[in-house]
Amino acid sequence: MVEAILHARADRSETEPTGTWEALLKSNGVFDGVSIISLESQRRGLTRIADREPVADRPIKPGEHFCFRIDSPIAGTLIAFQQYLSLWYRLDLTESKTFLNVVAGMQHIPFDPTTSEIVALSEEEHFEKHKYVFVICDAQTVERIAAITVSNAAIPQAAMNEMAAALSVIDERARSILQINVLFAKPG
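^ thats the sequence. predicted structure below, dont judge the formating
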């Protein structure tokens, strides 16, 4: 196992980050593979992704139900994170699931793995910009990442960098990092 990790490190390109979570997102995070969908009144308003560090073109209202639509380039296991006010949190995907198995192609996130129904999200109290990151790779790596994070608690920077190191050794064809910035409108 150690030999495989060392071999993978030796094979990765010069541009692949070996340090921080932020460096991994900057070099490997893709903004055009995820959109946000309003689940209000049967409307399915898709956001359009702009250029560098884009923000979804439609703010989400307080309490509005929404989900994400991702276009995953690979099948694998997905774990999600959100950043608010410079702190990172794990985004649990259902009441009982920290991560989900996904297929290559378009799908709604989160979904109930037993019924395939969309699980609605909403933001009730933290407004302004949130960044969402969806990591898709092998189940073993996602399980290790989930083990060093806690639901509803800020993830320490050292743990974020540990996650980045674990993801950096995976071949780019075997992992995907999708991200989107979403603006939550202030009430009123």
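Residues 1-17, 42-51 have pLDDT under 50 and may be disordered.
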